Amino acid sequence: MNPVFSYVIVASIVLVLAWQAYSGFNRGNRSHRSLIKPIKIDEIEVNDFIQSNGIEIIAPRFEYTAKSQPFPHHNKHEIKDSRGELSLEIDALKEINIERYSIMERTTSKVVECNKLLDLIKVLSTQYKIELDQELIEAPLDGLTLSELDTRQVTLLDIYDQLYQISFQEEVQKIRRRELSLESKEEGHKQSSIKSEIDRQSVELDLLRREEVLYRDIRSSRTIEFFEELDFSDFPVEAQARLKSHSDFYYSRLTEKVRIESEFENYTNYKQVVLSSENQEEIQELKFEGVNNKQQIHLNELRDKRIKILDIQALNAQEEAKSAELYLAIESATSSAILDKIVIEGVNPEQEEELRQLFTIARADLVFNEKHLLIINCEYVLELDAIVIEDVSEAQELELNDLRVDRRAVLVEVARQYKFTEQYTKYLVEIPRIEEIDALLKIEIDNVSKNQKEELEALRLSRLDCLEEIERKKVEEEQMVQFRKLHKQIESIPSTSELDEIIIDGVNQEQEEELLTIQAELRDILAEDELIAKHVDKAEKRRKKVPEPGEFLFEQESKFRTRSKTYGAGNGILRFSLLWDNMNDLDLIVRTTKGDTIHRGKRKSSCGGKLDLEMNIQPQTKAAIENIVWDNENTPPSGNYKVFLWHRKRHSKLRKTDPTEYMLRVRVGADYFQYTGKTSYGDKLFQIASIEVPNQKTMFERIETESELYNNQRASVLAAKNAETIPDIDPNNSALHVIMLSNIIEKQLVLLEEKKKKKFIAHQKAEYNRIMKSIESAQDIESLTNLRYDDVSNDVLGNIEKALSNRKKIIESGLKKQQHDEQIQLFEEQGEEINTATTITDLSIIVFDETLSEKQIKSLEKTRDAKRKLLFMALDGSELEKEKQNRLHDVLNKSYTRGGLQPLELSEWTEKEFENRLGAAGAKTGEMNISLLWNNKNDLNLLVVTPSKEIIHPRNPSIAKGGVLDVEMNKKGESSEPIENIYWANGSAKKGIYYVYVHLFKEHALFKLTNLSECRIQILNKGNRTEYSAPMSISNKLQFITQIIVD
User: Fold this and answer.
1) Under a CB-based contact definition with an 8 Å cutoff, are residues 574 and 696 in contact?
2) How far is CA 134 from CA 124, 150, 428, 589, in A?
3) How many of the other CB atoms lie within 10 Å of CB of 54?
4) pLDDT tens for residues 936-960?
5) Confidence label for 50 from pLDDT (cuts 50, 70 and 90)
6) Domains of the chain by range and CATH?
7) Euclidean distance between CA atoms 736 and 738, whole angstroms
8) Residues 6 or more apart in contact with residue 525 via CB below 8 angstroms
9) CA-CA distance, 593 to 251, in Å (whole number)?
């Protein structure tokens, strides 16, 4: 053989072996090489629920109380038969002990195997002088668990494999060195001897390779047949000895493993059959083969136990059935005679003892119940004494004796009660007739029973309480008469000096305290009244000129009406109202023609006047009003009434609040006056007006004639067809009605002008539409040339001329077909846009092109409606509501971006119309009100977005602690004078910005000719009023009105 080739072969073998050794060291997942698979002691659980080999013998239990049973037993001493469970538990514990013993045996065998490996390792390490980890080699094996020994064995096998590889490499190296030595001496020796040496070495190397391959096959073998077929005859004696040693070692491991696994599998199967079988004959016929002696002994013992358990279960079942039958018979017995017929037999001693105890208890109970019923039903003492009590428990006997004694006492008591009845009846009639307390106390009650005496004593006490109550009421009536007398006397006192002379006596403590309180309050009132009277007298003397009323202004009247309605001021035929615009404390004082002075200390006069509204004693409001009125039930006496003003207090520390401007509004029947002026803190009380009140007849005649005059003139103004027919205002109207008529005339002039303008616009629109229709329908140039449009305005003249030019071009160039094709294409594109829409929002933003025909637009609208229904069906409730909210928010935002409206001038307001309609609809008022009115049967809706981003509208008419839509009209077009109203109760309007919108919701079918709905919006925000006008139409269905800032 070529030496170079031999060298290559040896080098390849060395590299392969080195790579395998390296990879084996680094994988860390080498398979077990022990013939017996390790069994961890930790895997055997020992607890209250014993398990063995994965088969549950005793299942987990839950102890139920007697109350949890469907039909609980009354016997608390029932003994549970748990012999079967105890037997199973004993068997399980024995099985665990056997398993532990088996583990000990396998542990001993594992120690022997590890010692053999250590001997082989030491021989190889000594022979080839290889240093090892002595701590690992010399570590003791005693005390290790089976799993730890298995781990140690795996480690020693790896070391042995590595040492064997090293020893093999050493042998290969020796041969290689000898081969190299021979090659170096090749020139000095004969070619034949060298060749023979090389051949010999090649044979030796081949044997070593075959030995290594066979060793690996032996180590990796998993079947016994492989070992039985091994043949070492082709190897030298020394190699045969080594291979024989390896073969015997791995063969013994494999055979032991196969035997143990087979025995364990057979043992497990037999055990499962025994424990799961319910047939004794089947268990008896079993033959335990393929198991060791210990397993066979245990299986025989387990079979005997199982047979005994099945016998016990069968017997227990019979005894349990008989016991249950007897138990039911005893429990269901209704008398002692029926119970005595029951014979207890066919049960075990424990059940018999339990049933006899139940029998004894049940019989005692039945006898007790029979005797109890007999005693209760006795009607005579002798019959009761003849009853014999026996065959019951001591407690029952005592209870029956007590019952008999009680029944005897009852029967005796019945006889006694008959004797007491007559005397009891006598007292019962006599006591209620006594009228004197002393006579009632002297009666002696005897010859009656204890209960009757108690009842009669209770009757006497009741009669005594009644007589005392009569006496008490008599005293109270006398005290009440004295109280009323003193009360009337105190209230009629005209001065504080006379009031202090009154002596309060002859009343109870509560009445005395009340009178003293009234006296103190009246003293303060009289003192205040005397002080005001002095100031009024001085003011009358200081006034040299009677104040005259100023010009009656509508703005002041509007302010007055708002505050009167807000604070609920009273109204009457004579009324004095004082208004000012800061928090200073101003007092309104009126001296009547009778000489009475009405002020905050004395709010009512003898002639019917009263101060029903007084403000800013404490800083309350800047929109202040005080009101003194004679209501419709109290006609004021004729004569002169003087009005005074006193700047009592300036609450603000800054002087800028003064001088305070005021306005006094006076109503005398049908006439109204306004007085204005200024006052500052420190000014003396002064007179601001002097009013002459006519007699009752004159006043009511004036009211009637003035009202008739106003109504007639108002009707004439409203009925006027043009500005020339509007009448002049009669000067006999009151100042208030003059202003109201002026406003009505201004509005009527505007309305007439608007009607005239609308009529002109309608004519122009009709003419324009006619001309444009003629242009569109023209089929030749001659038709366009003959068209006349002299009557149209210059505003649309350009559009007409443009349309003429375009139509002329279309006719001339023959583009009509192209226009039609483009229209079809546009129609298909918009249809595709609808079909590809994936959300309701995408669908809602699609706008149809105006160039499409009416038929095409209707077709697209139907397609869009169908697509919308499909998208709605795909949405769940929350998504649908969210989609609706998003769409609503988008629409409101778009309307807001188009801008709001400007408020109307005061002269354009329709305040009276709002008041009439809101009053007729029963609308509520509050801190803030937003109202909407219009004059046709279309359905308009009022929408308000609050600072919390909640929307008040007909589907959400109210929000928590906020605005409420209390009036909503024309859902079905029921009114031609509709009104809607949203109000916030006092204190409920949150700070922030409110957004007001109007929505033309529906044009009712019968009224579609009304394509323009002008509406008015009134906003009352804490006394401030604004009004807006909004034209609503098909092209403008949603209009943003304005923002409201609440601070």
Assistant:
1) no
2) 14, 19, 121, 122
3) 7
4) 888 899 999 998 888 999 988 988 7
5) very low
6) 3-22+31-57+110-226 (no CATH), 546-694 (no CATH), 897-1046 (2.60.60)
7) 5
8) 601, 602
9) 142
